[in-house]
Design a protein that fits this description.
With 116 residues, the chain is of the alpha+beta class. The protein folds into two domains: 7-70, no CATH class; 71-110, no CATH class. The chain contains two helices and six strands. Strands 1-2-3-4-5-6 form a six-stranded antiparallel sheet, with helices on one face. Helix 1 (42-50) packs antiparallel against helix 2 (54-62). The chain is globular. The protein starts with 6 loop residues before the first strand and ends in a 6-residue tail after the last strand.
Length: 116
């Protein structure tokens, strides 16, 4: 699967959310677990982002829907560019950002039987 472009949200329970039309809503909780809600529409995702309380909106409109718990895994990708800023698309760090680390971290989510 392609990398996920997480949107961090202000919430005591939710850490970040992402949406892909072929997967639906992805929710990463503060405790690190990730869940997929395939039946969430783009309009509901936008409503979540615009809500004053992400947690309340989630519990009222999304939590009752079908879901799947996913396995989130960090992958190391070599090499880190020698210059430049953090690249959200590739997850690459600028050189020297983490002394002694010669790779960048990216999020990879493994789905069972889902399209890639």
């Amino acid at each position: 699967m392609k990398n996920i472009n997480w949107i961090e949200v202000e919430s005591s329970n939710l850490d970040a959310v992402a949406y892909r039309g072929d997967y639906g809503l992805l929710v990463r909780f503060k405790v690190g677990t990730v869940y997929r809600y395939p039946d969430v529409s783009p309009a509901t995702f936008n409503d979540l982002l615009e809500s004053n309380s992400k947690g309340r909106f989630f519990h009222a409109h999304i939590r009752p829907l079908a879901f799947e718990k996913l396995e989130l895994e960090l992958q190391l990708v070599d090499p880190v560019p020698s210059e430049g800023e953090w690249d959200v698309e590739t997850g690459r760090l600028p050189a020297g950002a983490l002394p002694g680390v010669g790779a960048a971290l990216t999020n990879a989510i493994h789905f069972t039987g889902a399209p890639s």
